[in-house]
Design a protein that fits this description.
The chain is α+β, with helices and mostly antiparallel strands and about 550 residues long. The protein has 20 helices and 17 strands. It starts with a helix and ends with a helix.
Length: about 550
Amino acid sequence: MHSTVISKCKELIELLNRYGRVIEIHDGALLIEVDEYYLHELSELLHWKLNGYYTTSIGVDERPLNGSFGVYHAFVLDDYGYYVILYIKVSTGLLKTTSITPVIPGANWAEREIMDFLGIRFIDHPEPYRLILPFDWPDGIYPLRKDFPYNCKASVKDKIDEVVHGSTSTVKDVEELSSRYTLVPIGPYHPALHEPEYFELYVDGEKIIDARYKGFMVHRGMEKLAESRLTYNQIPFLAERICGICGFTHNTAYCQAVENAAGIDVPERALFIRSLLLELERIHSHLLWFGVAFHLLGFDTGFMITWRLREDIMNIAELLTGNRKTYGMNLIGGVRRDVKEENIEYIKRVLKNLENEFRDYMENIFSMNELVKRTKEIGILSKEDARKLCVLGPHARASGLKTDVRKYHPYAAYKYVDFRVPVRDEGDVLARLLVRYEEILESINIINQLLDNLPNTPLQAEYDGIPEKRLGVGVTEAPRGEDFHFVITGRDNKVYRWRPRAPSYNNLQSVPLMLRGEYLADAPIIIASIDPCFSCTDHVIVVDVRNGTRKRLSLNRILG
């Protein structure tokens, strides 16, 4: 490590030691046991003063370990190359802790999720309403507590709280908006929508005056299932199904979290193969998004062009893994299949042809006045608001935030390649298009470097089990932004706690702000411009727990 970097790290640790005991849980990750008195001050220091950013909060039922609950607030410090996790021990008697949402608005959802799933209250939280659990979920039952069986069926409660589920609005707020403006609902289920999503747009004529997002309509119970039933090497196949488009990046983030916790050194060839597949996944995901964006703009020729180009990437993925999607390549400690030497030249030739075609098509498309007018200065998210809401990935980079964990916290084989991080300052839909365009070209460049330098090592590390009670963080730069996976290792070859956080979880909170003041006709492309993935964000759908059937709700019932 360079002496300047070592000096900065020492300064950081000395600074953080003023607030609590600092523990290096593994390379590049620090844990601080913080007194609540310093929580706001330290959160402000990490997010605002040290040019870091808040990424998520995790609640853990630690009663079997230490008799209490725990809350972990995770921050990323690009300038120092560290993840910093603030740990608050929460007593079982009080079951409350200080909220950091007044300091960092982007912490809103994560803290409310902990309230829903563990019953921990956050003092001075500005919107202490239910976020995920359905409105008729019984009081006093919290699904992520260890004494709640994964297959338990609770009884619904009779009294319904006067809160609009999944929204930041009370019923009174919604009634006031509805009395003054026209409500235009988008979703949650509609033939034109790819996933269940629900936006309330309050319009005056063609102008959007206000917007609300309500999500969390898809339930798969992955965290609870993993902690209850699955072994360490079964979870990668579950993690890859968090997202139907970019699942391998979740799979990799989970494996890295466990490997970091256990101190497993993954062989270099396996790291190169992981990066290769991650960049192929980035290209196919971005090309898919371009097609959807062009379709929403009424430019179906662009849709067909980009999806045809995407087929070349899907064919390469099938050649390397046997699957067009859901590769099934990762295990703890390495990968399952090798890259054959005879395929390398073919892959490079296909990528070269794709790059030439893609450049030609996109240069023509970006010269179309109709497309530029539909995207320029539309759906603007300022750099300041992007910081407040802790947005990630291309969405953040299009608003002037220079962040990319591949570059500033290198994992897999990214420290062995040279690439540029595209950043723009406009913060509009056009900037998000241009950032993704440049990222595809950079991904092709990265893949060529990886193929030219594949090391000759084994594919799997040898290790003697996973020690329990270890913390691990695994982070990848997914096509939509940073995937953050947190694990606490357990006994019997199982995790004690696994918390995956997808980038859309952070990015979706910015959409209502981007919609306000815009025309109704631009709402679809503004929403799509963050490349939202609702399935990898959502956790719960309304289910009749008395008989296990899903409820069909009328619009009035959804609105509360």
